[in-house]
Design brief:
mitochondrion inner membrane; elongated; 0% strand; mainly alpha; membrane
């Protein structure tokens, strides 16, 4: 009997955890618009460092200083899109050049 109930309990636990995570994300504004997301990110940035410091004092160990990383997802996205579009725009001429080089190679080595 326990073998039949255990999978149901596991599934119910997983669904409860996923539902709770979804509720917390929705309630904190992460699933809203960009303004709500920015506000939620600001709250998280303000709340996480004090919590980590409190845990370090409680457990009695120190973490190394976190490096400052300057990364803009918007710039990374834009540069990736620009490179992809550029590659697509020059693809016909690049294929033509490679075809000409390949034909010339075959002609030179078939004599």
């Amino acid at each position: 009997m326990a073998a039949k109930i255990l999978p149901v309990v596991k599934f119910a636990t997983k669904v409860t955890i996923a539902g709770g995570a979804l509720y917390v994300a929705y309630d904190s504004g992460l699933l809203g618009g960009s303004e709500q997301g920015s506000v939620a990110l600001g709250r998280a940035k303000a709340a996480i460092p004090p919590a980590v410091e409190e845990w370090m004092k409680y457990f009695g160990f120190e973490l190394p200083a976190t490096p400052k990383i300057v990364f803009s997802p918007l710039d990374a996205w834009n540069s990736g899109v620009k490179k992809s579009i550029h590659a697509l725009s020059v693809a016909p001429s690049t294929v033509s050049d490679y075809t000409k080089q390949g034909l010339q190679y075959v002609k030179d080595h078939s004599k």
